[in-house]
Each structure stands twice: as structure tokens, then as C-alpha cells.
Amino acid sequence: MKDSFNREIDYVRLSVTDRCDLRCTYCMPATGMCFLKKDEVLSFDNLVFLIKSLAKQGIKKVKITGGEPLTRRDTVALIKSIKAINGIEKVTLTTNGIQLARYAEALKEANLDGLNISIDTLDPDEFRAITRVGELKRVLTGLEKAIEVGLPNIKVNTVARGELTEAAICEIAALAKTNPIHVRFIELMPIGLGKGCPGKTQEELFSILESNYGKLRPFEQRLGNGPASYFSLPDFKGKIGFISALGHCFCAECDRIRITADGCLKTCLHMDDGCDLKGALQTEDEELLLKQVFSAIRRKPEKHHFLESQGDSRLMSQIGG
Fold first, then answer.
1. Where is the Radical SAM core domain (predicted)?
2. Average pLDDT, the chain
3. Which H or E run contains 144?
4. 268 a known binding residue?
């Protein structure tokens, strides 16, 4: 499938729930969060039918996301089913890591192709303050288990918050020095509660890392589905990556669409556009489904407008992280 700017669309980020077992300050309010009801969330059969239909049209890569996808009991079974669909080459997962130790072996058995774990700090008290309810130890145990069972292509995602100190940045980056994993710093995007939060630029992070670890050398190979730019550091087992949608816009290479947990197709993270696929999915009307998908992809914007307009008013957990 190609959009009107001749970009090949072969990647879908599939949110399987809007629920999460953390309450990160830049993602959800402390109280009053209103989640989808069970019958509003796409079912296992809806999701498999969706990916089977999209795979016939050239979708090759699927990222399972949320909310926190491991709060949904059938996520591992879903990964197995999607992996078995003709045309699907990679299925990866993004997680906050809280339940990762419990599921790491099952994810390995499901032949998961990659794993993104969100870790914004290695300070237990700060982790609790950011997530409001989370225990850092559980996430680190999950990371250790994922490495131990041999899950491939493990990445740690850290939001580049303005509060990150030089010491904290270096401490997180060092995870890629001692482990065969990649650490990525993600620019704080003005979405939902993140709109009011200060962030650090890629250039600030770059300078801090080089002054502590030596010259960052560009790594040209792709390490997954995403738009990250990767760099090597001396004596590091893994790479350091940056995802900077504002400072280093990568929309010209965008190859993705997003599906929310209630079946809304979004063609851009920022834009409040897309279409509701739920009716076509519930009736398994593939002709209608693909007609809606093609129509939406033709309207996919050339680039985001984070700095110029309000965009989608939903929280990140409601869109799909």
C-alpha cells in the first residue's frame, strides 16, 4: 500500500488495550482515568482477521502495544497467531516491563522478534514518583529474564525528560555497555499530558554521552522497524539510539499506520484523523475494511504538525504507545 506521497506502508502498530498497570505522570492523570469497556476493545478474532487482511495488502511488520499489552491475558497467544499469518515477517512488542519476568519464556516460545522496554530512570524512588505505582526492581528483573531466555533485539526506551541529570543519562546508557541490548532516548512529544513537560534535545544528550563515553559513531544498519538513528560507542555491547520526532523529523520515511484498541485507524500519531474499522471487523467484511484502510492511507498527511496545531486530544495510552 502506498500513500499519496509514494511512501510504502508496511508496518502497523496494534494497540491491544488502553489499560496499564502504571500511571506515568506524562501519560495518565493520577485519578479519573476512564478506560474502554471490555466489549469496546477489539477481540482476539477481530485482531487476527485485521492482520490477515492487512498482510494480503503488504503489511509485513506488526508492533503489539497498548496501554500495557501484557495486562491482556491473550497477548502471547495473539503474537503466536499473528506470527503464523502469511506475509508477516516480524512481530515485536512494547512493554513497561512490570510483568515481563512472568512472560519472557512464553514470548520466546512465541518467536517474538523484538522487545521494547520502557525505563525512564534507574533510581527506584524516582521510578515510583514517575509511574506513581511501579517498582523498578520488577522491571529490571524482567529485563534480566528477557536477556537470559534469549529474546532477540531488546531495546530500552527512555523518555528524554528535562529532569534527567547527566549522571542519570550515563547510568541508563551504560545498560548497553554491559548488556547486549540497545538504549534509545525518545524526545518528549507534545501529546496528552506530555504537552506541559520539559524535555532534553538530542544534541544535549549527544554532548553528555560523548563527554563521558567517547565519540558516538553512526551505525547505518537498521535495528528494527522504527525511525531511530543509532550510534556505536567504544566498548559498548549494544547501540545508543535517538528518536527525535521534533528536532529531527523523520516523517518523509514514515511507513506506518496505527490501530487503537477500539478499532480506530490512525495514519499519524499527532493528527486527529483516521477512521473507525470496528464495524467492518466485527462483521468480517474484508471488502469494506480494505476500502476504509485504502481511503485513510490516501489521506495520510505529509508530516506531523506538533509545533503548529493541537492535534489528537487523546492520551498516549488511548492512542497506542
1. 4-227
2. 92
3. helix 136-149
4. yes
Binding residue per annotation — 24?
Answer: yes
266 in Cβ contact with 65 (< 8 Å): no
Residue 118 labeled ligand binder:
yes
> pLDDT band at 313, cuts 50/70/90?
low
* Correct CATH for 11-156+253-318 of 3.40.50.300, 3.30.750.24, 3.20.20.70, 3.40.50.1820: 3.20.20.70
Q: Helix (H, G, I), strand (E, B), or coil: what is residue 222?
A: coil
94 has binding-site annotation: yes
Residue 165 marked in a binding site: no
Partnered with residue 185 across adjacent β-strands are 158, 242
136 by Cβ neighbours in 10 Å (0-12 / 13-18 / 19+) ranks as: buried
CA distance 166 to 169: 5
Mean pLDDT calculated for residue range 258-272: 89
What pLDDT is stored for residue 316 in this prediction? 64
Q: Does 147 count as an annotated binding residue?
A: no
Task: Please tell me whether 161 is known to bind a ligand.
Answer: no
251 marked among binding-site residues: yes
- Weakest-pLDDT range from 46-55, 101-110, 112-121, 272-281: 272-281
Is 26 among the annotated ligand-binding positions?
yes
pTM (whole model) above 0.70: yes
The band of 244, judged by pLDDT with boundaries at 50, 70 and 90, is confident
Q: Which residues have a Cβ under 8 Å from the Cβ of 136 and sit 6 or more positions away? A: 119, 121, 122, 123, 124, 127, 128
Q: For residues 57-65, give the mean pLDDT.
A: 97
